[in-house]
Structure formats: structure tokens, C-alpha cells
């Protein structure tokens, strides 16, 4: 199955690769697909909080490259916003 990314998606992925987070576009896309699979995994036996914690742990595991500190800070803020938005949609027991 062939897929085509939008120019915005291509730029975002290339920025992550250029920042040194992944060695290639292919590696970045593999990581993205793995993240989607994990999030969609209905067999995950932990709680939503544990999944969110693991996600944040993974996102915060890399050291920013000094020259790209602004990029990493923007990425962290956007990720925090996405997690917060996701958590607000989750039903509270």
C-alpha cells in the first residue's frame, strides 16, 4: 500500500531527523507507527495513566542537541498539549 505524506508532515518528520532524533526518515516513520500501534493496542494491560507515563518517559528520554534546543522545547510543549487534550477526553471513574 502506497501512502503520500502532506508537505507539512514531510517537513515535521525531516525536522526531527535533522535534529538527530533518528538516523533516517524511515526510522522516524517506524517509530511513529510503533507509537500509534501502542496507543491503539487494546490488549495493553496497564492503566491509561501508565500508558501516558510511558509515552512521556519515551519522549523525554533523548537529550536535545544544543543547536536545536528551540525545536525540542516546541516539540515538548506540543506533546504535553496533546497528552493533556487526550487525558481530558478520557472518562473519569
Q: What descriptors fit this protein?
A:
single chain; 0% strand; mainly alpha; 4 helices; globular
Brief description of this entry?
Helices cover 66% and strands 0% of the residues.
Describe this structure in words.
- The chain has 93 residues and is mainly alpha-helical.
- It has one domain (7-89).
- It is 66% helix and 0% strand.
- It has four helices and no strands.
- The longest helix has 21 residues, at 69-89.
- It is globular, with a radius of gyration of 15 Å.
- The N and C termini lie far apart (40 Å).
How far apart lie the N and C ends? 40 Å
H and E string: HHHH
CA-based gyration radius: 15 Å
Describe the oligomeric state of these chains in a short phrase. Answer: single chain
> What's the rounded overall pLDDT mean?
77
The tally of structural domains comes to 1
Beta-strand percentage range: under 5%
β-strand number: 0
* Main sheet summary: none
**Class derived from helix and strand content:** mainly alpha
Q: Which blocks of ≥5 consecutive residues have pLDDT under 50?
A: none
Number of helices in the DSSP assignment = 4
Coarse shape: globular
Helix content: 55-70%
Give the topology, please.
Elements: H1 7-18, H2 25-40, H3 48-59, H4 69-89
Amino acid at each position: 500500500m502506497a501512502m503520500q505524506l502532506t508537505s507539512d508532515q514531510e517537513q515535521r518528520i525531516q525536522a526531527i531527523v535533522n535534529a538527530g532524533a533518528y538516523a533516517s526518515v524511515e526510522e522516524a516513520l517506524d517509530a511513529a507507527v510503533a507509537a500509534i500501534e501502542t496507543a491503539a493496542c487494546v490488549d495493553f494491560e496497564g492503566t491509561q495513566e501508565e500508558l501516558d507515563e510511558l509515552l512521556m518517559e519515551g519522549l523525554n528520554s533523548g537529550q536535545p542537541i544544543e543547536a536545536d534546543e528551540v525545536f525540542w522545547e516546541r516539540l515538548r510543549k506540543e506533546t504535553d498539549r496533546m497528552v493533556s487534550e487526550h487525558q481530558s477526553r478520557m472518562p473519569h471513574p
